[in-house]
User: Fold this.
Amino acid sequence: MPVVSGYNSSDCPIRYFQNPSSRSLLFESRSEEKKKKIRMAASDRTVLQFGPSSAATSNVTAKVHPLVIFNICDCYVRRPDQAERVIGTLLGSVLPDGTVDIRNSYVVPHNEFSDQVALDIEYHHTMLKSHLKVNPQEVIVGWFSTGLGVTGGSALIHEFYCREVPNPVHLTVDTGFRNGEGTVKAYVSVNLSLGDRQLAAQFQEIPLDLRMIEAERVGFDILKSTSVDKLPSDLEGMEVLMERLLTLINDIYKYVDDTVVSMIIFLFLFYSQIVLI
Amino acid sequence: MANTMARSFLQVAAAEEVAPPLRVVQIEGLVMLKIIKHCKEFSPALVTGQLLGLDVGSVLEVTNCFPFPIQEEDEEIEADGANYQLEMMRCLREVNVDNNTVGWYQSTMLGCFQTAELIETFLNYQENIRRCVCIIYDPSRSNQGALAFKALKLSDSFMDLYRSNNFTGEKLREKNLSWVDIFEEIPVKVSNSALISAFMTELEPDTPVTQRDYDRLQLSSSPFLERNMEFLIECMDDLSVEQQKFQFYYRSLTRQQAQQQSWLQKRRDENKARKAAGEEPLPEEDPSNPIFKPIPEPPRLESFLIANRIANYCNQINGCRHCCHYNYYYCCYLLPLLLLLLVVLATIRCYCSFCHCFCCWLLLILLLPLSIVGGGGGGGGDGEDDDDDDDDYYYYYYYYYCSY
Assistant:
């Protein structure tokens, strides 16, 4: 199944797909408020149908805990020599407001050839059982892979995970820093079907909340550097917090000052206009 | 040639027996986050897990860990637990994680982890692993802002003594072992791979505006202090029970010795009478007599552990006091000024009795509550001579109060 995804500048996902039976390129843009359906200018007059209730997928957001990123990076560093990327399962829960809370993860050994993907399903089930023994609330919510963007092999793996859980979230973590930054993105997939035929799986990006609250509690200084000689004591931790609070207060102070100055200038100009008039 | 080679091989093998002492435990950030997550999820229940890593020279590297499920009271838990552990280790080995157990971690509630079970677990681990360490994490103290990670191991002298099962008073005095020598705390270092360091640098929020951990600045420590005091009181009760056991032992020992002496005296008198009568003297010992049965000495291990716990609580209370009573510092400077004022008033007394009386009474009424608050809290942060300071202040007040 071919799968392509791309983005336009107005930050609205546009999906390009090529119908093998027609040579025209069709594009379709979807936003929260309106949905445009464009009919195919092709020889056969079949109406293109989009996947079921895209409204459900458009409200999904994901939240990632820092432990997941740590785990993925550690697994990537330990991957076997011939593997280019690592994939694995994401565990977590779905919060009442629809947000997917990704709390834990484990890597699953896999092999990727040119057009085939082999996944160790038994390993996946064994680890899942072990994790459920410790914490039965953490269930499968999706899967992750390293690397930028969604590839053909990912679609096959995503199909497998669709059988495990209704709407899996696909997380990509760019460990290669290809764009000059470590991009972490989350996708959900919607099926495109033409009549009865499955055409493509479109991977729609969903908003991802990367706030690292637990990492803040531990302290970014400890997690950022490659080696820390001593854990900070109570007072040192409080000192760091106070310094940050001081910076925050200074920032806010400066902001308020600037606002006041600009207000004064604005009022001066306003009244001078009135006077002149 | 063969001889020299064999000797050098033996020398090498002998040299390897001497392991360098454990100096530092190096934890990965991943392990810290996993432990924090596991302990926090199940707090206040106490949970445990296994540590995996490598033993390199004088550094023990902990590179990964996995949690143990909470076991219900069941008969099949032994087999289940062992199965779970084996499965996890096997699965982790397949993905190139260090498959080597180096210890275990456990969560604790306000630091009451020094129990006999901990020592038993240590000895169980020590049978299979040459060097193992226990990491203790306290989620309740971490809520106060400190990162309460501690790496512990049993000291070698204590282990030898425990194995020989000889925990009597004389043996302890002989080995010069006191309650501080049971556990050894090892400094903890944190290391991260370069990749994760890059990611964290990237994901750190740029401004402090978006950070959310300012609730750690909340300095109200009274619930924390209250619970510490509660635990401390319980420990004192336990300690008094142990001391009563010892007192009972010593009393029965002296009583037994007195009985033995009197019996011996009677025997000697009997023997003298028999010698005078020309008969065989009776032996001066009688092992079948119950007063000669040695009374077993109660073991001292429990009282040592209780002493450890008490020291822990006291340290925590001291640390908490230092953090939270900085705002009373001003009292330390204000109080001498107030006292100076009182001295001045006392000298004025000689010149004007009426107005001075009124002023003095007014001042006392105003200053007494301040001094009580300041005296109570202003000692904090000064050091160990709190009680002396308090006594001085109160003494001055009572002196002037009573001097009319």
Chain A touches chain B through 63 residues (CB under 8 Å). The first strand of chain A starts at residue 6 and ends at 7. The helical segments of chain A are 54-58, 66-77, 121-134, 152-164, 213-218, 220-224, 234-276.
